[in-house]
Amino acid sequence: MKTPAFFQRSELTATLWTFRQEFLMVGFFSMLANVLMLSPTLYMLQVYDRVLASQSELTLLAMSLLTLALFGVMAFAEWLRSRVLVRAGVRLDERLGTQVFNASFESHLSLAGTSPARSFGDLIQVRQFLTGNGIFAFFDAPWAPIYTAVLFMLHPWLGVLGLIFAVIQALLAWLGHRHTLSPSEAAVAANSEAGSFLQSKLRNAEVIESMGMLGNLRQRWAQRHNASLEQGAVAQGLTQRVVAWSKFIRYAQSSLALGAGALLVIDGQLSPGGMIASNVLMTRALAPIDQIVSGWRGFISAAAAFTRLEKLLQSFPQRDAVLSRSAPQGEIKLRDVVATAPGRASPILKNINLNLAVGTVLVVLGPSGSGKSTLARVLMGVWPDVTGDVLLDGVPIQNWDRVQVGSHVGYLPQDIELFEGTLAENIARFGKMESAQVIEAARSAGLHDMILRFPKGYDTPIGEAGALLSGGQRQRIGLARAIYGNPALVVLDEPNANLDDAGEAALVKTVQDMKAKGKTVVLITHRPGILAVADRLLLLQDGRVQAEGPRDAVLAALQAARPPVSAAPVAVAAAA
Fold it and tell me: What is 323-408+489-500+518-576's CATH number, 3.30.1380.20, 3.30.110.30, 3.30.420.40, 3.40.50.300?
């Protein structure tokens, strides 16, 4: 029987539900602590009404020792509930950390704009709220009626006064939520936008500095930063206003409770001990509500972070383990593939059909903007907006487990991104180090002799994003990383853009070696020197297939069609 939608839990809620035993334990310890919170009230009543009247030092000593013991049990209960929540927070992070990272990475890859750093910040915020003082206020709040009931037992008017202040505080909390939620979310979004803008510009510091762009970019950053400050000031002003009203009500409650108790004492309806005890008891009854009001901003932030995480995990759920299958052989089929992007009126790729048998070397040609790099991303399954079928060994590329299939494919993007670590770690994709395979990949990329000239050889750190390397060196390392482990499918986007003649010769030899091993290679280029290794050619023009087939046949067709054909310059040069 299918569970009704009303009772279905989101993935994040279901994960939190697995911690219900811990929350029950915290509830029990909170009950114990709050019951023992009545100890000071009872102690005051006994001291003022019994000890002072009887002048008995023994009674005072016995009651003091008993109260101290109860205080010890109360402190121990509060320590236990804190410890349970801290451990639950660590387990929550362990359980969701990998999943949040994968989901945020897929979201960032799909151009949804979610960065892994922001998602982990949301996870930390939720965890800190669940393990901080804010959550204790919600566990203590149900005990406010108990304290109010004790006030009624002392005197009905004291209970009524406690109820009035409780309603005022609850109303203040509701108004605070209603008026501060939207400004707080806007402030967080504006601050995140300003930070992202600044971070993206730091990656291009050399260009900014060399061409004097710093002042212009600083003005644009200042606009975002000032907007963030204004949004933050509005949100903080509203929150501080709520807190200020809360303080006024709390101080007024303390004084009025004492005054009301004094009036009842004067009228003979309450003892002096009851007057002092009622003041403490009313303060304790309203403390959870006051804590909720004071921590409302943290609650709003945690609730917003929870909502973002919930949406993220729903949009990018954990991949099914059933997707595991045997290693791919490298057969590629595209059926009516259309690739689009936000903000574009027309698709980037339009009805692409392609068949590549295992062991085929395909060279993709075309002018700039014809969709070659998009085709490479579509083949790798990393372009978000695709319709049609992209099949690897007859299976849709999105149905492959990325972790499993990752070691069987290689990809060299046009913008090469290396990572902080050693040369060997980058070539080995930061996985388990197979020294022989690292050296083999470096040799195939014509990189081995160059690496040996580095101070520490393969163990040489390359700095953040490979900042210590030249463009040609980064290109060769990216190529070695792409062919590491002899993958079945290799897609190379402009692999010779930064290579000299020796580097291009090494690239040709690399492709020949992969072809000899029966690997499928898709190579995108503007330079005709690599055409000699191609089995098939694909010419793209404005996102459409202009020509596709065996190399010699395509080149002959292009040669015969000159000069009318509007083809890629590189293809015309190659045909000549």
Answer: 3.40.50.300
